[in-house]
Design a protein that fits this description.
The structure is a single chain. By secondary structure, the protein is α/β, with parallel strands linked by helices. The protein has an eight-stranded mixed sheet, sandwiched between helices. It is globular. The chain has eleven helices and eight strands. A hairpin with a 5-residue loop joins strand 1 (about 5) and strand 2 (about 10-15). It has helices at about 70-85, 100-110, 130-140, 150-160, 165-170, 180-190, 195-200, 210-220, 235-245, 260-265, 265-279, and strands at about 5, 10-15, 20-25, 50-55, 90-95, 115-120, 225-230, 250-255.
């Protein structure tokens, strides 16, 4: 497994799939290793995917300083990888919570990013929040599913702030376009890929300055793809669209029938869209 040293000496791992010009891929979670991304539905047939294991996850070492898990401090890890790969500029793809890190990296190093693909992105770094009603409206699109009634009741409890652990798990089907055996297996594996201590520190006080990040993104003129899933409960399309409006050169795409992991729901469509953007 290839590795590199962060600026604080922490050893960080990555995995490479495919050939051609590299695309640096930042996983979500927050603070999950990259295994759940697979090869993004076959995107590795078009570009070399460099999948990062954030510090303290997967093959990357646990740091001595747990405060280094904070999102703004992880920007230095991305920059260290760019230097390790000897890239003047990088193409960057980020999923979910990884989009927060990508946004902060762009804010600090805009001249280093050639193309930016944000896949069903978290919007915390730019201060956009999904409302409970927005999530419920997306969920209602699934009312013909056999699991809908129980899952929707659990979601209403979550939105009302009355969720239990079991109740939160009951809404899992809403994160996938198809709640089939593959989706169940993917979801069951999620916790094994996450560092819970790191996840708690990721968004600690001081990690985000939405006003400053918005200003930096407004000045970022490189091409951006912002891909939302039509039925994504985590980042509903209206929230993703609001994020896209912050970027002057953004292409906003809603993948039909897709949830939070669009490469699982329709790999061919996801790859076609993303590969065309990345070139």
């Amino acid at each position: 497994m290839p590795a590199f040293s962060a600026r604080d000496g922490n050893d960080l791992a990555y995995h490479a799939f495919g050939e051609g010009a590299p695309v640096i891929c930042l996983p979500g979670g927050p603070m999950q290793d990259s295994a759940y991304l697979g090869d993004l539905g076959g995107l590795s047939a078009h570009r070399r995917l460099v999948m990062v294991d954030p510090r303290g996850t997967g093959g990357s070492a646990v740091p001595a300083d747990a405060a280094s898990y904070r999102c703004d401090r992880l920007v230095d890890d991305v920059e260290a990888l760019r230097e390790h790969l000897d890239l003047d500029r990088l193409d960057l793809l980020a999923h979910s919570a990884g989009a927060n890190l990508a946004a902060l990296y762009v804010a600090r190093h805009p001249e280093r990013v050639g193309r930016l693909a944000l896949i069903t992105p978290s919007t915390r770094a730019v201060g956009i929040d999904a409302t409970g009603e927005s999530r419920l409206a997306v969920a209602r699109l699934r009312e013909d599913e056999p699991w809908f009634d129980a899952a929707f009741a659990a979601l209403e409890a979550v939105v009302a702030g009355n969720a239990t652990g079991a109740g939160r798990a009951a809404v899992d089907p809403f994160f996938y376009g198809r709640w089939d055996a593959a989706a169940r297996a993917h979801q069951a594996a999620q916790d094994a890929h996450r560092n819970t201590e790191a996840a708690a520190a990721f968004g600690a006080e001081g990690a985000f300055d939405p006003r400053a990040t918005r200003a930096a993104l407004a000045a970022f003129t490189a091409p951006v793809l912002l891909l939302a899933g039509e039925v994504d409960l985590n980042t509903p399309p209206d929230v993703a669209a609001e994020f896209a409006e912050l970027l002057p050169n953004a292409t906003f795409v809603v993948q039909p029938g897709a949830g939070h992991f669009p490469w699982l729901d329709d790999a061919d469509r996801f790859v076609a869209t993303t590969a065309a953007f990345l070139g």
